[in-house]
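Structural prep section.
Before we set up the soaks we want a predicted structure of the protein with GMT in place, mainly to decide which crystallisation condition to try first. Input record follows.
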Amino acid sequence: MGESKPSDSLRIGITCYPTVGGSGVVATTLGIELAQRGHEVHFISYERPFRLPENSSRIHFHQVCVNDYGLFKYPDYTLPLSVEMASVSCKYNLDVLHVHYAVPHATAALLSRCMLPPEKQPRIVTTLHGTDTTLLGADPGYGPAIHHALIQSDAVTTVSAWLKSETTRVIGFDGPMEVIHNFYEPGTPSRSRDAVRRELGVGDEVLIVHSSNLRPLKRVDLLLESVANIRDQNSYKLLVLAGGDFKQFSGDVKRLGLENRIVVRENVLEIEEYLQAADMALYTSESESFCLSILEAMFFSCPSVATNVGGIPEVIDDGQTGLLVECGSADAIAKAVEELIIDKDKRQRLGEKARSEAKRRFSTNAIIHRYEELYRRLISAPPTVAVVEGCR
Ligand code: GMT
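Run finished without errors. Recording the tokens verbatim:
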């Protein structure tokens, strides 16, 4: 299969986390878009990424088998992943191995390269997504391994300018990094906006959407406190699209008297259905390299109220495509949300601008060619032979 390909198409391996989560969504969409542009794409992971189509002739999935040997207290994923990466690289003559989220993917990619003869070694691209820098990069048990993987990669990209500077600050990596912002390609909803709003029990209220994996840095506690501070409690409903178990917050919901204001849908795959039914979005994270969910909402003309942290100001133009608020104050967040609830004209104006800016700056057409150009540049240059200096 690997032998005949159109002269300018590439063979690209992609490794990502296959579950619901921004880095996996971005990697999967990238693979689908690359295949549509004529490239041969090989996904290598422990599970098929949830949005990966089954029926594309140019998309292949290679499952990594993890054995739970009795001797091991913790099952190891990195070594079988590296072996599968080497095997796929060798069999299909990969030009590039593009890993999303450094841990453990970048280290596994380097190991796989060491297992291959020079003529079979693909160029390695590592895309940093967020907590691989901010959380794991600061962890002494991971930081030096991430630093090593970055200097040995042929290219490193970050999903925002903020994440690039954090990578230098936290990990001490001062090699080249290219900022390639995230992108999104909305699917077409299969139900009408009215049908979805009926399902959710929403009438004339403003429907506020929040979509996240609910991890502590998403500050769901602040989200709930903020909506509880909205003066007219009948003016809105909050839809939580939860990539996790929302029951952990039922105590807060009860304490704040929000039982009738919140609708939860867990592990939704077709988020477009719900985004088209929403009027605005709300994000209260304390750290965020980009926040793909804000971008997804923008494509459906939803302006967000969001905390002014990390890379979020690169996505939202404050006062034009959404409203930025300092993280921490539930009062300030509630006021910004109220402003968009009460002023429908403003909400719609910001929503329309959000949509046009999302298409202009963060559509697949605006971004995918940046990765293609990067791959071609790497292939035409000599591979990276980095020398590690000193101990870390
Ligand atoms: O880094 C993470 O926490 C996981 C990652 C994910 O897989 O959801 O989220 C990060 O990558 C997304 C896609 O690039 C970004 O939209 C998120 O902002 C980012 N999360 C954080 O920085 C906390």
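Observations: The chain is about 40% helix and 15% strand.
Flagged for discussion at group meeting.
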